[in-house]
Amino acid sequence: MKFNEKLSNRIQQQQSFLCIGLDPDKAILSDYGFRDDIFTYNKAIIDATHHYAAAYKPQFAHYAAIGQEEQLQQTIAYIKSEYPTIPVILDSKRGDIGSTASNYAIESYERYDVDAVTLNPYMGLETLAPYYDYQDRGCVVLVKTSNPGSKDFQDLLLASGEKLYQSIANAVLAKFDEAQSLFVVGATCLEELAQLRQAHPNTTFLVPGFGAQGGDLEGVILSGMTREGQGLLLNVSRGITLVNGIEDFASYLKQVKLNAKTWHDNMKHLREKYHGE
């Protein structure tokens, strides 16, 4: 089964686009006694939110920075064992060439055994090729990101008349299998999102940038959803798990679960509202 088929099945089952980021916060880990046991914390988060998740996305640096790659590995293995229909995307934004790229692909798909990984195409299409060799896995390519500095390079106008981000999207799909491909398109880039949807009517977009960055949920779904009610995976991390001022962990988990349900239900409502338009 291709990655996008697995993801599409999960979205259809959930009737929602919610991707939950597993980016453990140091202060929260310390507050509840999980400073050296991220896996147990993550397991509790997953068990509390799996009913609402179309996918999970752990961010690699949050684990590597404190030497907890093994607990990342445990977290991924737990999802795949207990909730095998939920895809896992490793957010590591790898981008290299040759044997280094091949080894990064091995790290992602064999060591961590994730369903998909985020990739930086700056060094060219050859940096993506080793990942596409894993034909049942997904390749999530940075195209138009939500950070303010994305305009420094991604909006550069080329001699062809395209902007750089448009050229990247076109080049990726000209060379590689769309059933394996996703594009990262920021929630703060509604005009670009609509343009990319028009140009690529069947491609799935992973959309970060909600919460602190101010992404417009309704605008994203209206601009980015396909006519089939698919084509989007909307990531929320801090908006679900960054909860302050709660003394005991059980109450914290209840709030995390409520946050996930709220995001899920809002996405489901908007999906139903605009499906087929």
From TrEMBL:
It comes from the Bacteria. Gene3D superfamilies: Aldolase class I. It catalyses: orotidine 5'-phosphate + H(+) = UMP + CO2. Its EC number is 4.1.1.23. GO terms for molecular function: orotidine-5'-phosphate decarboxylase activity. PROSITE patterns: OMPDECASE. Keywords: Decarboxylase, Lyase, Pyrimidine biosynthesis. Pathway: Pyrimidine metabolism; UMP biosynthesis via de novo pathway; UMP from orotate: step 2/2. GO terms for biological process: 'de novo' pyrimidine nucleobase biosynthetic process; 'de novo' UMP biosynthetic process. InterPro entries: Aldolase_TIM (IPR013785), OMPdecase_AS (IPR018089), OMPdecase_type-2 (IPR011995), OMPdeCOase_dom (IPR001754), RibuloseP-bd_barrel (IPR011060). SUPFAM superfamilies: Ribulose-phoshate binding barrel. It is an enzyme of class 4 (lyase). Residues 17-253 form the Orotidine 5'-phosphate decarboxylase domain. Pfam families: OMPdecase. Belongs to the OMP decarboxylase family. Type 2 subfamily. This is Orotidine-5'-phosphate decarboxylase.
